TrEMBL record:
<dbReference type="GO" id="GO:0006260">
    <property type="term" value="P:DNA replication"/>
</dbReference>
<keyword id="KW-0862">Zinc</keyword>
<dbReference type="GO" id="GO:0008270">
    <property type="term" value="F:zinc ion binding"/>
</dbReference>
<keyword id="KW-0235">DNA replication</keyword>
<comment type="similarity">
    <text>Belongs to the DNA polymerase type-B family.</text>
</comment>
<keyword id="KW-0808">Transferase</keyword>
<keyword id="KW-0238">DNA-binding</keyword>
<dbReference type="InterPro" id="IPR004868">
    <property type="entry name" value="DNA-dir_DNA_pol_B_mt/vir"/>
</dbReference>
<dbReference type="InterPro" id="IPR036397">
    <property type="entry name" value="RNaseH_sf"/>
</dbReference>
<feature type="domain" description="FYVE-type">
    <location>
        <begin position="3"/>
        <end position="79"/>
    </location>
</feature>
<dbReference type="GO" id="GO:0000166">
    <property type="term" value="F:nucleotide binding"/>
</dbReference>
<keyword id="KW-0239">DNA-directed DNA polymerase</keyword>
<keyword id="KW-0863">Zinc-finger</keyword>
<dbReference type="GO" id="GO:0003887">
    <property type="term" value="F:DNA-directed DNA polymerase activity"/>
</dbReference>
<keyword id="KW-0548">Nucleotidyltransferase</keyword>
<dbReference type="InterPro" id="IPR017455">
    <property type="entry name" value="Znf_FYVE-rel"/>
</dbReference>
<dbReference type="Pfam" id="PF03175">
    <property type="entry name" value="DNA_pol_B_2"/>
</dbReference>
């Protein structure tokens, strides 16, 4: 639970998924129990070819025996669901790229791969926060479907209300998009999921959240900045969005005390002019001078600013998506980054059979580090004892 795994070893303090996969001196991977006693007469399992610790170990082992088996000749371990003992040929292994069993002479190449299916179900959203306590607390959120239908979540429970709405069965299979999600909006979504005891599928890049996926509803949350690495203010000019322009908002004025404020324009410092690039700062100063006589309604301005941001994001992203669909028939937002989109397009449209090699991790000669003296000693012991001893040069797992 805490570590996101089904099991936890209280001896070596290691989380693990399957009892048969955990390696620990206090844990028996054959029967899945801790402190499995060893008897003098060790029974043999004829189904999976394993020598077990005791008759009691054999009883518990029968529940796990259906998972894998060991070849008594090459000592290779295989999953029953992938290869039966009658189909097995010593020396063959399953190629993770080609997805079938091959021998040691197999040459692996990058395979052509189909594009992911198109998905027309998108949600675009943005959070606004109160940062007066030096901790960002969402208190406003706007979300829009691809057709422009809008949903508003107000108040300091906006995070929970939005996520309750997003992670409903109505949105099963949807993709939610926010600009700079990986460094801002995504953390509020992750905070909600952790608080609900959900275990999301998550892709991180350092401390940045590249993608979140709901474990049951298959709802993805991605960052549009990973595809369009420009500020949201540049979207209107980049995509030719007539009538759209990112506005100005006093983010530092967004506090508990000012939620119902109506009056004069807040002081310039609340707009954070010193945090802006030169052109953006110049634009803010010019706009601020023009608005001096305006009445500032905080809730009205908060909505208009947030709604405008989401509209710009939605229209820009949909134009970006349509460009890819028209030229490559690829839906970019079914991937995580623009790099993964480009690779998908290349593998589907341009990859030719047996042209780009997949080089093994240890090279074609399996050049892993080993001690020459140890190999000589093991080979000698194997000859003297007339027993097969696995080492680095006669087994890929040695």
């Amino acid at each position: 639970g805490f570590y996101g795994s089904r099991n936890y070893c209280r001896f070596c303090h290691t989380p693990y998924e399957r009892p048969t996969s955990h390696k620990c001196e206090h844990h028996c991977s054959w029967c899945g129990r801790d402190n499995c006693s060893v008897s003098e007469n060790k029974p043999f399992c004829n189904k999976c070819n394993r020598r077990l610790n005791s008759s009691e170990c054999l009883v518990y082992h029968t529940k796990l025996c259906k998972e894998s088996w060991i070849c008594p000749n090459c000592f290779g371990r295989f999953e029953f669901k992938e290869r039966t003992q009658t189909d097995h040929v010593c020396g063959e292994y399953k190629c993770i790229t080609c997805k079938y069993f091959v021998n040691s002479n197999h040459l692996c190449y990058i395979q052509k791969k189909n594009l992911k299916e198109l998905n027309r179900n998108y949600v675009f959203f943005d959070f606004e926060t109160d940062q007066s306590s030096n901790v960002h607390k969402p208190n406003f959120c706007v979300a829009q479907y691809a057709d422009g239908k809008e949903f508003i979540f107000k108040g300091y429970d906006a995070e929970n209300e939005f996520c309750d709405w997003l992670f409903s069965r109505t949105h099963k299979g949807f993709t939610a998009v926010a600009h700079n999600m990986k460094s801002f909006d995504g953390y509020f979504v992750l905070h909600y999921m952790v608080g609900k005891g959900l275990k999301p599928e998550i892709i991180m890049n350092g401390a940045k959240i590249m993608m979140l996926r709901h474990p049951v509803l298959n709802i993805r949350v991605i960052d549009s900045y990973n595809f369009i690495p420009i500020s949201l203010s540049k979207f209107p000019n980049t995509f030719g969005l007539s009538g759209e322009k990112k506005g100005h908002f006093p983010h530092y004025f967004n506090t508990t005390q000012n939620q119902e404020y109506k009056g004069n324009l807040p002081e310039l410092k609340f707009y954070g002019p010193d945090t802006l690039p030169t052109d953006a700062r110049r634009s803010l100063l010019s706009w601020y001078e023009e608005q001096q006589q305006s009445v500032f309604d905080f809730q009205k301005e908060l909505y208009e600013y947030c709604s405008s941001d989401v509209s710009i994001l939605r229209k820009g992203c949909l134009q970006f998506r349509q460009l890819f669909l028209d030229t490559t028939n690829c839906d970019p937002f079914q991937y995580t980054t623009v790099a993964s989109v480009c690779m998908a397009i290349f593998r589907y449209h341009f990859t030719q059979e047996k042209t780009i090699a997949m080089i093994p991790n240890n090279g074609y000669r399996n050049n892993i580090n080993f001690s020459k003296a140890s190999i000589q000693w093991i080979s000698y012991a194997s000859y003297v004892e007339n027993k097969m001893i696995i080492h680095a040069l006669n087994n890929s797992e040695g």
